[in-house]
Amino acid sequence: MTAVREQTPPRPRPAPTSRRLRRAAGSAPPRPPGDGGGRGIWPYVLIAPAVLGTLYLLVYPLVRAVVISLQDFGLRQLILGDARFVGLDNYRTLLGDGRFWEVVRRTFLFMAVDVVLIMVLSTLVALMIERLGRFGRTAVLSALVLTWAMPVIAATTVFQWLFHSEFGIVNAVLTDLGFSSFERYAWFAHGPAAFAILVALVVWQSVPFAAITLYSALTTVPVELYESARLDGASGPRIFRSVTFPVVRPIFLLVLSLEVIWTFKAFVQIWVMTNGGPGDATTILPVYAVQTALSSQRYDLGSAASMVTVVLMSGVLVLYFRQMFRQEDELA
């Protein structure tokens, strides 16, 4: 008898994938109809409104201000539109004005005092929030958010009433405490007093954002680092210098740069509260530019002052970022 050997049927080969088919055939992957071989114009269509809005709201005013600063542009030219180019004459006039340089010094002083107070107070507030319980943390954060959400004009009006010479709460409290010299004291008639009130207003409006941002950064510090530092016997200030600050330094520097920009270009609070007075005691560069443009109808000098403000602020930020990048390279 012949034994019949049973054979195993061959396994079916797997169907070639689309990648194998394309590799074998040397053809390109199928594209959706109407694609035209690329992404098409739809991404550009979708971002076009944002780009056009940015160009209209930011780039065009900047270019227009540069052009006006190079022209003889007064009230007559504003109405008739026959301005002629004068080159850098407006900048020579501006830089040769002693009052302008006094305003520049006051602007840097105002910015430095504000930024130092904002960063110190916001850091202390953020550290305090981190150590509070849930109820206290919620209450403080809610108060900060409400303060931050208050409109600038409303906050400025409140400060005007607080320091009003006859009906202000500050004068009433100081008089009741025995400081009779503050009865009917005109805060806004004295330059140093008006300057200090504006500093307090700007700091009060800026601390909430900085404190909330820094508190968010503090929550990213690992708890194990704090525990190790305490086991090594490190004090609170040493823990902040060696553990906390190195971790939150990028956010700290970001907040610092934003505060430099915001305080350097502060305008609304000063214009509403003192209009740059008394005298020039509270006049900084943005206020000086508006005063020059509106009071004297010298829109060319006002635009030149605005351009100098942009250049000075950009120079401060460039120096700051260079120092920041140098420190990051040293730590890397």
TrEMBL record:
Domain ABC transmembrane type-1: 104-320
CDD domains: TM_PBP2 (cd06261)
GO cellular component: plasma membrane
Keywords for the protein's UniProt record, in alphabetical order: Cell membrane, Membrane, Transmembrane, Transmembrane helix, Transport
Transmembrane segment boundaries: 41-63, 108-129, 141-164, 184-204, 251-272, 301-321
Keyword Membrane annotated: yes
Region (Disordered): 1-35
Locations listed in the record: Cell membrane
Gene Ontology biological-process annotations: transmembrane transport
InterPro entries on file: MetI-like, MetI-like_sf, UgpAE/MalFG_permease
Coiled coil location: none
UniProt membrane topology term: Multi-pass membrane protein
Protein family membership: Belongs to the binding-protein-dependent transport system permease family.
Entry protein name: Sugar ABC transporter permease
Species, as recorded: Streptomyces apricus
